[in-house]
Each structure stands twice: as C-alpha cells, then as structure tokens.
C-alpha cells in the first residue's frame, strides 16, 4: 500500500499470488519481480530528503532492510500458496547494472520460482536505486521468456481522456511520471523497460491487478507493449 508507509496491502498480495498459484499449478514457469511499495520508496525518499537528493553508499543498508522485510513477506505468501519461491536480493545478486541475473536463471532451470525486487545498490560510493521495472525487463530478456506482465495500480497505459490503450508501440506522449510516491519514474520508466523487453519477448503487457489472471491465461487485457514496426523505406 504505497499511501501508507511500511504497510503491505495483504488483500492485493493474496489476490495476485492466488492467480500466480493457478498459473504455476497448471505447469507454468514463473519468476516474480515486485516493486518497492511503501517500503523501498518510503525508505529511499527519507534518505534522499536527509541527504538533499544524492544518496551515498552508506544510505543503502536502510533501504535494503526495508526491502528485505517486504520481500520475505512476498516469498512467504508465494510459498504458502504452493509456489517454490526463492529470494534474490539485487544487492547481493547484481554487481553492476544491467544486472546479469544468473542466480535467478539457475533457479528457473531447477524448476523453482525465483523472486527479486527493486533495491538499493552501493556502487562507486553512491547508492543506485534499481527498479523492479528494469529487473523484470532484464530477467525476461535473459530467460527468453514468452511473456512479461507488469501489474500496476492503473488498468494499463492510459491515453488522452484516461482510456486504456490496448496497444502501445513506443513512448507515447501522455505517459508521465507517478502521481503517487515512486522514486523510479512512474509509468514512463515502466513503459521504457517494457519496450526494451519487447525487443525479444513475444508478449509484454501492462495491466491492473484485475488483469493479472486474464493476462496469465493469454487473454488480451490492459496494454500490449510492442516495439515500433520499422518504417517502410
Ligand atoms: N499515461 C499514463 N497511463 C497510466 N499511468 C500513468 C500515465 N502517466 C502517468 N501515469 C502514472 O504512473 C503511475 C504508475 O506508475 P508507478 O506509480 O511507478 O506504479 P508502480 O508502483 O507500479 O511502479 C500511475 O498510477 C499514474 O500516476
Ligand atoms: Mg514505479
């Protein structure tokens, strides 16, 4: 629950995990990436305010701790629903960006369901925030995934007039940052990450929570993200 610091919206988490459990029990290969919610974003914002914007390497541990707390709840919920979830904190998995994701690829090959999340990495004396949006894009690309689904608080990418766009083929103009608390750039950054993955992943979608089940069943829901078709010469 991003509005309430350090609070998990258990109802939303349970609903999402129940859909993932159906997918997993029908034989689907699954990896999960979650965002900072009211944990990482709150901790990062607090540290930024204290430092006047620029985070030092010394600021990473408190953001990491907040995210470990959220991450363990996500993993516990997945496991309670019968999903063999394993935890991959980016601050131990990624030496630099883009992150190689090897431990998650190993677990996928072992039939496990690896989990990672947006996190704080100490790099060259600074803290770099890596977003779940980018991690998901890198992982889907490296794992040669068939499908990448971004689940967010809006039912898809909204066009002029607030209507969900059924397909986006590039960075559309009305797409902006976040109206809520978000240190990694809102819908615009999410769409950039989705477009990167769409270069190699067949189906990339941005959906709301209610769209997760249909998207996992292959139904056209939310916004399909595609690389722009090459211009005829
Ligand atoms: N064209 C758009 N369509 C959808 N959302 C948009 C658009 N432009 C800006 N946004 C903002 O982006 C937000 C989604 O990004 P974000 O807050 O970062 O979500 P998440 O927590 O899933 O990362 C929306 O809630 C909305 O405030
Ligand atoms: Mg975001």
Mind explaining what this structure looks like?
The protein is of the alpha/beta class. It is 41% helix and 16% strand. It contains 8 helices and 9 strands. It has helices at residues 10-25, 37-51, 60-80, 90-93, 102-109, 132-142, 186-197, 209-216, and strands at 32-34, 85-87, 113-117, 119-123, 126-130, 147-152, 167-168, 203-208, 223-225. A 4-stranded mixed sheet has the order 6-8-9-7, sandwiched between helices. A 3-stranded parallel sheet has the order 1-3-2, with helices on both faces. A two-stranded antiparallel sheet has the order 4-5. Strand 4 (119-123) and strand 5 form a beta hairpin. The protein is globular and about 50 Å long. It starts with 9 loop residues before the first helix and ends in an 8-residue tail after the last strand. It binds adenosine-5'-diphosphate and magnesium ion.
Structure described in brief:
By secondary structure, the protein is an alpha/beta fold. It has helices at residues 10-25, 37-51, 60-80, 90-93, 102-109, 132-142, 186-197, 209-216, and strands at 32-34, 85-87, 113-117, 119-123, 126-130, 147-152, 167-168, 203-208, 223-225. Bound molecules: adenosine-5'-diphosphate (ADP) and magnesium ion (MG).
Number of helices: 8
Overall SS class: alpha/beta
Helix content: 40-55%
Mean pLDDT: 95
**CATH level 3 topology:** Carbamate kinase
Count all strands and give the number. 9
What is the string of SSEs from the N terminus onward?
HEHHEHHEEEHEEHEHE
CATH homologous superfamily caption: Acetylglutamate kinase-like
The top level CATH class name: Alpha Beta
What's the CATH architecture?
3-Layer(aba) Sandwich
Largest sheet: 4 strands, mixed
């Amino acid at each position: 629950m991003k509005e309430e610091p350090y609070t998990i919206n258990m109802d939303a988490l349970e609903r999402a995990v129940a859909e993932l459990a159906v997918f997993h029990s029908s034989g689907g290969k699954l990896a999960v990436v979650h965002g900072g919610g009211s944990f990482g974003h709150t901790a990062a914002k607090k540290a930024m305010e204290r430092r006047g914007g620029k985070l030092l390497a010394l600021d990473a541990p408190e953001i990491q701790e907040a995210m470990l707390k959220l991450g363990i709840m996500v993993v516990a919920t997945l496991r309670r629903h019968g999903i063999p979830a394993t935890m991959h904190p980016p601050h131990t998995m990624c030496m630099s960006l883009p992150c190689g994701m090897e431990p998650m690829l190993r677990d996928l090959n072992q039939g496990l369901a690896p989990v990672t999340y947006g996190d704080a990495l100490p790099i060259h004396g600074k803290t770099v925030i890596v977003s779940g949006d980018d991690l998901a894009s890198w992982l889907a690309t490296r794992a040669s995934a068939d499908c990448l689904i971004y689940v967010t608080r809006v039912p898809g990418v909204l066009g002029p007039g607030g209507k969900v766009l059924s397909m986006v083929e590039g960075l559309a103009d009305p797409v902006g940052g976040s109206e809520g608390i978000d240190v990694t750039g809102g819908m615009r950054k999410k769409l950039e990450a989705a477009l990167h993955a769409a270069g190699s992943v067949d189906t990339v979608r941005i959906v709301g929570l209610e769209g997760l089940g249909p998207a996992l069943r292959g139904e056209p829901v939310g916004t399909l993200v595609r690389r722009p078709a090459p211009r005829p010469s």
